[in-house]
Design a protein that fits this description.
It is a single chain. The protein is α+β, with helices and mostly antiparallel strands. It has seven helices and ten strands. The protein has helices at 3-19, 58-100, 114-160, 166-190, 202-212, 234-251, 306-316, and strands spanning 24-29, 34-41, 44-51, 198-201, 218-222, 229-232, 255-261, 265-272, 320-325, 332-339. Strands 5-7-8-10-9 form a five-stranded mixed β-sheet, with helices on one face. β9 and β10 (332-339) form a beta hairpin. It is elongated.
Length: 340
């Protein structure tokens, strides 16, 4: 007997045991299609025979098959529907991630449910507005910085004709500081330029940047494979790393650059043995033109845009910068996190 027959027979036996006070035995006659129940009562026997179809009906099999088939069909339709809904959401997620890393998103046709199409359309509009805002900001800063160079050049010529005196030296100092500020503006503008993304060997790329720096004592430690490739804007990222290295060399006489990786990030740690930065100012130093009196002054150079430019570039690559105390050299550690 099959599973269904065994279950029905067990149910029949259970019902008879509850309702009969006499011993009985169930006899199956599969060939004739009958079921007999033999009941023993005080040395007499009673046999009840009835057709098998009374308890074993084909409609039960049909009902179960219909339930299984309809469940499988509905499950397939639900999976197909969910797949069609998840695909545009995944496409939107990838586009948002690429936009956060400063990569080209391109245009894609909004598909899926009405809500998903509305979200995709809103994302495309946001992307266009952000790009227009960045372009306008870049053009404005570039124009202002360029226009300021003309009167600054005239001032320098006028000062050169005044000769050597105390007032001229003070004015010359102010002009030089203004020139550095304008250079900082231009560097800030170039940090948001339209440089194309390239795939480079990350370890070799960092080693070359360290070798190009004119620092007396700089150490490079690579903890990942030399064949590890990464996609970034080489000139922009080099500017960010160089700004941090310049600060490290300016306030310390020993610098350590290390490259490592965890599950989610590539980590570029730049450490020095300088005075460091108080923890309360770790967030403020990324603000434009912010200075710390104990560690920075106009005599050491810079206009307070180095870390700001570095942070802008790293954020455009989808990463982040964290400052902390250096465990190896005792000064400041600037850790650049790039998404793996």
């Amino acid at each position: 007997k099959g599973l269904w027959e065994r279950w029905v027979s067990k149910s029949l036996k259970s019902v008879l045991e509850k309702n009969l006070n006499y011993p009985f035995r169930i006899i199956y006659n599969d060939k004739a299609g009958f079921i007999s129940v033999l009941i023993e009562s005080e040395s007499r026997y009673l046999m009840v025979t009835f057709p098998e179809r009374k308890i074993f009906t084909s409609s039960s099999y049909i009902f179960l098959l219909w339930m299984v088939a309809s469940s499988l069909l509905l499950s397939f339709i639900a999976l197909w529907f969910m797949r069609n809904q998840v695909r545009p959401i995944r496409r939107l997620s990838v586009a948002a991630e690429r936009l956060g890393r400063g990569l080209d998103v391109g245009s894609f046709k909004p598909t899926g449910s009405r809500e998903v199409r509305q979200a995709s359309q809103a994302f495309l509009i946001m992307k266009e507005r952000l790009q227009k805002q960045i372009d306008q900001r870049t053009a404005m800063l570039a124009g202002i910085s360029h226009d300021l160079r003309t009167p600054l050049t005239r001032l320098k010529l006028s000062l050169s004709m005044l000769g050597e005196n105390e007032e001229a030296k003070d004015m010359q100092h102010d002009v030089n500081e203004m020139e550095q500020m304008i250079k900082g503006y231009l560097d800030f503008v170039r940090g948001e330029g339209d440089e194309n993304v390239k795939r480079i060997r990350l370890g070799e790329y960092l080693r070359n940047i360290c070798n190009e720096q004119r620092l007396d004592n700089i150490e490079f430690v690579n903890s990942i494979s030399e064949d590890t490739y990464y996609s970034l804007r080489p000139l922009a990222m080099e500017r960010a790393i160089t700004n941090i290295l310049v600060n490290a060399g300016r306030y310390g006489d020993k610098t350590r650059v290390s490259l490592g990786r965890d599950d989610d990030w590539f980590i570029i740690a730049i450490e020095d043995n300088g005075l460091g930065i108080p923890e309360k100012n770790h967030e403020e130093v990324f603000r434009p033109f912010f200075r710390i009196d104990e560690a920075r002054s106009s005599d050491t150079g810079g206009v307070g845009l180095g870390l700001t430019i570095a942070q802008e570039i790293v954020l455009a690559h989808g990463g982040e910068i964290n400052l902390s105390e250096s465990k190896n050299l005792g000064g400041l550690q600037a850790a650049i996190y790039l998404p793996a």
